[in-house]
């Protein structure tokens, strides 16, 4: 007999729940002696022997490790409650304990959200370990920080292994590479272990580290000290002693890294984390966390910008080599620019530099898949450019016998344009994919745009410019020159003085109306500057769009020395023509760069919006409202900068996708950088909008320090929600005696005190506004939520579900309380009154420390976590249910549900906040009366007419009181 299946102790059949008798006999020869004469084995006897001797019942469960780690298990065994550690694990330990030193249940479920979701919604697996054994191992998932299947396979002579973890536990006498455990350092630091390995006491260095009984003595690498970490965090002594964490290192890996605690003397993860290079490594997944980054880089971060600046000579040579290669390709396979009805005309002036021209044309052809009219103006070339037609087909070719210069060649060439838009493109410039389409779409979408320019990147990867600035003396500069192309300042759309002519889009008709490039500037420089000013004077906009990107070999068509001479001469010409424009410009100064970076449109304000985090709608908890405020401000034409108190933990790409492209998102800084940020932008902002009262409190000392830099800026304190109200409700809910907490009046006074620094205050509803006014704050406005009615089409007869949507950022939160109460108290009773096909669907963002695995399971309950598009859920649901028992502000989720045509069943707390008519607009439930709630919902569930009435009224409420026009009016009233 090999495998002895055991009677289920857990609720499901588990892959680890058996005795592997052959494996035991192989690893513990004495087992065969004990059971030599037995034919029918009694599993309990084997388990008792395993428990007594510390034997593993199978390769998946390590008896010695389990009993050594968990003191309560040892006690329970000594008291006769369990016959072994495995017996304990089978019956209760499988829910939250670790069965093997190379598997961590908490790590596995936190890392793989899909597994946690499977466990809470299905009955296939008993726990994370069961999933790992059955599926995760074959899928090459990691069950521990210390076991990377790919690194393990690299240590083997044959990597063709389908189940790496299973293979290892069958052949455990091997060390392998791990980013969390330095085997070389460990062996050198603790040489005595090598002797014990030879004796067979331990299977490997890692086995010793993770199973030895002296937790404080050994460290996994030079970067982590058990002693130091415990001394710095004395609250960990008890959890480590009890086995909650095997050692302090496990706490650090689970929580300390995320909290950026110090792992050893001299290692400052907080500072290291905030360096831009580490941020990029994290966002791009090149390191899993900041601690690994420290270990790999030994805590040293190269100043990338300085390094790249020093390499431009080399990168230009590399650019030339690539160009030569592409020219060869074009010789063998000519570029095709044939057209019938082109979307855009592209003008490129050529004067020698053949290889670079072919590079530019190759990039141009790859950048736009539709028809382009290519107009090549050869200005007296005497290299292979004279035969350009051999390499390019379908182009309109103009030849000048002499070098007539860029300006005159462009003016002649544009007369051949057949498309409504033209791109003037230097032959030393690579236009990148998506740029042309972006420009065409903007021209089509906005008839007021006359010129569009984009982000120019030098060959060394740093910015040449992100739009350009003209100062009062006529001098010009590229905004953000030398910065990284992904810097926030370079990645939002704005109106600018002018854009560089290396890649300049404009309307053909407008170009002709203005008279083209002024030939007073021949041969070149300042012609695009002059043209853009004339565009502004003609009533059109000049726009910088970062989605238009090009690589520019600076001075590829002329020398820097010649360029400087032309610039000095043409600046004088420019000043003589545009004195009226220049008189209104900013004086040249480094401190004025941000002031001068954009042209302010009429009635436009520059607004700095400060929030806890960059507010994604999916975050809920007031962030949805902040997102809507920012979006509305942007659509109103205001220049909005969003600055977070806490640096984002999500990719900057996700943030850019979530907001209008004209919003500046400061994703790479936090409150520690705010004072310097204000200094760099002195006088820039008309309005500083601070969201949440706690953030106003945080910023008071900073504002007091920088007030002289923003003397005219209006400070708006947006309370978002009055937290004192929520705290009062919670204390009442928990039956905390009134003499054990502050009164509501005392709480309000304390909460509101910091608002004295604001010139205006914003409340989220009338009730909060009344509290502010009662406390002496008079300049109070109300700004709630904005929604657009978009009722889902499915009829009543085809809807069966109840839907709950709410973000849960931490376990101690109103929404988590709602989920627990709904799933453990209300739903088990309510489901008895409902049809079999009714389900409770739970969706919403989960904070980094929240796992679906801890949520209560129940009949017909489905947890989805964050869902990008909730439309289908709204379409399938018959009702939206919001049983919040304590809350502040107003619930965004109710407005969103009503906008989708979903009738809402809400707690009395939320009904009071929202202020709709009870019974006709919304259904109120008294949370203390479960039977009444069940009866009300059961009756309502089958009442089609009532459902349709509430649905219609909810949509009308949104249409009448939460529409975008009204929202814009409210914001205008606040910031004017």
Task: Please describe what this structure looks like.
The protein has 976 residues and is an alpha/beta fold. 42% of the residues lie in helices and 14% in strands. It is built from 44 helices and 29 strands. The strands form 6 sheets. Strands 4, 5, 7, 8, 9, 10, 11, 14, 15 and 16 form a 10-stranded mixed beta sheet that branches. Strands 19-18-17-20-21-22-23 form a 7-stranded parallel beta sheet, sandwiched between helices. Helix 22 crosses helix 23 and helix 38 crosses helix 42. It is globular, with a radius of gyration of 34 Å.
Produce the secondary structure layout:
Layout lengths: L2 E3 L12 E3 H7 L1 H6 L8 H11 L9 H7 L1 H8 L6 H7 L13 H7 L1 H9 L6 H9 L12 H6 L9 H7 L12 H7 L2 H8 L5 H7 L14 H7 L4 H6 L5 H12 L9 H5 L2 H8 L6 H8 L6 H6 L2 H21 L2 E2 L7 E7 L3 H14 L4 E8 L12 E2 L2 E5 L5 H8 L7 E5 L3 E3 L3 H11 L3 E10 L4 E4 L1 E3 L5 E3 L15 E2 L7 E5 H7 L12 H11 L3 E12 L7 H18 L1 H4 L10 H4 L9 E6 L11 H13 L3 E6 L7 H7 L5 E2 L8 H7 L6 E5 L1 H14 L7 E5 L4 H11 L10 H9 L7 E4 L2 H9 L5 E3 L18 E5 L8 H17 L9 E4 L17 E5 L5 H6 E6 L9 H8 L4 E4 H7 L8 E3 L4 H12 L2 H18 L2 H12 L1
Parallel strand pairs: 3-6, 4-5, 4-8, 5-7, 10-16, 17-18, 17-20, 18-19, 20-21, 21-22, 22-23, 24-25, 24-27, 25-26, 27-28, 28-29
Antiparallel strand pairs: 1-2, 8-15, 9-16, 10-11, 10-15, 12-13, 14-16
Helix pairs in contact: 7-8, 22-23, 33-34, 35-36, 38-42
Short description:
With 976 residues, this protein is α/β, with parallel strands linked by helices.
> Which regions contain 5 or more consecutive residues with pLDDT less than 50?
none
- The total of beta strands comes to 29
What percentage of residues falls in helices of 4 or more residues?
A: 40-55%
Mean pLDDT: 93
The number of helices is 44
Largest sheet: 10 strands, mixed
Shape: globular
C-alpha-based Rg, rounded: 34 Å
How much of the sequence lies in strands comes to 5-15%
Determine the oligomeric state from the structure.
single chain
Structural class: alpha/beta
How many angstroms separate the termini?
Answer: 84 Å
């Amino acid at each position: 007999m090999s495998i002895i299946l055991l009677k289920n102790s857990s609720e499901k059949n588990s892959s680890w729940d058996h005795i592997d008798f052959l494996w035991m006999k192989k690893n513990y020869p004495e087992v065969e002696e004990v059971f030599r004469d037995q034919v029918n084995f009694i599993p309990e006897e084997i388990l008792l022997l395993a428990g007594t001797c510390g034997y593993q019942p199978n390769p998946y469960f390590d008896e010695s490790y389990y009993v050594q780690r968990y003191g309560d298990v040892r006690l329970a065994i000594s008291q006769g409650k369990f016959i072994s550690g495995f017996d304990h694990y089978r019956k209760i330990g499988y829910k939250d304990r670790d069965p093997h030193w190379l598997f961590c249940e908490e790590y596995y479920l936190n890392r793989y959200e899909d597994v946690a979701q499977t466990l809470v919604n299905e009955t296939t697996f008993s726990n994370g370990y069961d999933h790992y054994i059955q599926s995760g191992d074959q899928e090459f998932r990691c069950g521990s920080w210390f076991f990377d299947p790919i690194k393990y396979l690299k240590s083997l002579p044959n990597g063709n292994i389908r189940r790496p973890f299973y293979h290892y536990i069958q052949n455990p006498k091997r060390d392998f590479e791990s980013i969390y455990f330095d085997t070389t350092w460990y062996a050198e630091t603790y040489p005595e272990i090598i002797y014990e390995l030879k004796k067979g006491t331990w299977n490997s260095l890692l086995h010793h580290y993770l199973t030895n009984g002296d937790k404080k003595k050994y460290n996994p690498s030079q970067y982590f000290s058990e002693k130091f970490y415990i001394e710095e965090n004395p609250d960990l002594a008890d959890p480590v002693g009890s086995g909650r964490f095997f050692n302090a290192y496990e706490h650090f890996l689970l929580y300390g890294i995320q909290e950026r605690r110090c792992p050893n003397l001299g290692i400052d993860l907080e500072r290291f984390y905030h360096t831009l290079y580490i941020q990029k490594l994290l966002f791009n997944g090149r390191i899993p966390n900041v601690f690994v980054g420290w270990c790999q880089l030994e805590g040293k971060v190269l100043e990338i910008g300085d390094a790249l600046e020093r390499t431009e000579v080399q990168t230009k040579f590399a650019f030339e080599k690539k160009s030569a290669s592409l020219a060869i390709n074009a010789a063998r396979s000519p570029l095709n620019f044939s057209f019938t009805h082109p979307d855009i005309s592209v003008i490129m002036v050529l004067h020698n530099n053949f290889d670079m021209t072919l590079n530019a044309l190759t990039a141009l052809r790859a950048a736009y898949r539709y028809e382009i009219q290519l107009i090549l103006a050869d200005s007296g070339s005497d290299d292979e450019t004279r035969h350009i037609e051999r390499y390019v087909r379908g182009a309109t070719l103009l030849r000048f016998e002499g070098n007539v210069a860029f300006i005159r060649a462009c003016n002649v060439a544009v007369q051949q344009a057949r498309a409504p838009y033209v791109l003037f493109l230097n032959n030393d410039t690579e236009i990148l994919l998506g740029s042309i389409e972006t420009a065409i779409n903007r021209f089509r979408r906005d008839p007021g745009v006359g010129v569009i320019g984009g982000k120019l990147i030098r060959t060394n990867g740093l910015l040449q410019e992100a739009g350009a600035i003209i100062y009062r003396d006529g001098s010009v500069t590229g905004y953000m020159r030398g910065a990284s192309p992904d810097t926030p300042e370079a990645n939002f759309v704005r109106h600018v003085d002018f854009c560089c002519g290396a890649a300049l889009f404009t309307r053909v008709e407008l170009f002709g109306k203005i008279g083209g490039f002024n030939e007073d500037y021949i041969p070149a420089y300042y012609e695009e500057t002059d043209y853009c000013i004339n565009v502004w004077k003609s009533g059109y906009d000049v726009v910088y769009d970062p989605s238009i990107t090009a690589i520019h070999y600076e001075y590829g068509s002329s020398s820097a020395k010649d360029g400087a001479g032309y610039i000095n001469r043409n600046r004088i010409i420019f000043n003589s023509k545009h004195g009226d424009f220049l008189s209104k410009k900013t004086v040249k100064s480094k401190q004025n760069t941000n002031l001068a970076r954009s042209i302010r449109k009429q009635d436009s304000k520059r607004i700095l919006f400060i929030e806890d985090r960059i507010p994604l709608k999916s975050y809920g908890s007031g962030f949805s409202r902040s997102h809507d405020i920012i979006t509305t401000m942007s659509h109103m034409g205001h220049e909005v900068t969003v600055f977070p108190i806490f640096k984002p933990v999500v990719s900057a790409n996700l943030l850019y996708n979530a907001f209008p492209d004209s919003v500046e998102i400061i994703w790479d800084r936090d409150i520690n950088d705010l004072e310097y940020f204000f200094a760099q932008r002195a006088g820039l902002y008309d309005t500083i909008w601070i969201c949440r009262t706690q953030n106003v409190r945080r910023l008071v000392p900073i504002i007091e320090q920088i007030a002289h830099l923003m003397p005219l800026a209006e400070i708006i304190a947006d309370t978002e929600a009055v937290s004192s109200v929520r705290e009062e409700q919670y204390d009442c809910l928990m039956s905390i005696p009134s003499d054990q907490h502050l009164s509501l009046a005392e709480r309000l006074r304390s909460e509101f005190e910091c608002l004295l620094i604001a010139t205006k205050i914003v409340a989220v509803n009338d009730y909060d506004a009344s509290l502010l006014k009662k406390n002496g704050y008079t300049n109070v406005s109300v700004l709630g939520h904005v929604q657009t009615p978009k009722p889902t089409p499915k009829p009543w007869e085809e809807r069966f579900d109840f839907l709950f949507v709410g973000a849960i950022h931490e376990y101690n939160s109103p929404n988590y309380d709602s989920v627990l109460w709904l799933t453990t108290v209300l739903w088990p009773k309510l489901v008895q009154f409902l049809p079999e096909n009714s389900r409770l669907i739970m969706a919403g963002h989960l904070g980094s420390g929240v796992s679906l695995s801890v949520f209560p399971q129940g009949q017909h309950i489905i947890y989805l976590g964050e869902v990008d598009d909730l439309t289908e859920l709204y379409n399938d649901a018959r009702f939206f249910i919001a049983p919040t028992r304590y809350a502040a502000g107003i619930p965004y989720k109710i407005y969103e549900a009503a906008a989708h045509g979903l009738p809402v069943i809400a707690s009395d707390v939320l009904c009071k906040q929202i202020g709709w008519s009870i019974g006709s607009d919304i259904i109120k439930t008294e949370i203390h009366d479960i039977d009444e709630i069940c009866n009300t919902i059961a009756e309502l569930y089958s009442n089609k007419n009532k459902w349709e009435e509430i649905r219609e009224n909810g949509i009308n409420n949104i249409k009448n009181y939460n529409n975008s026009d009204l929202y814009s009016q409210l914001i205008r009233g606040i910031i004017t």
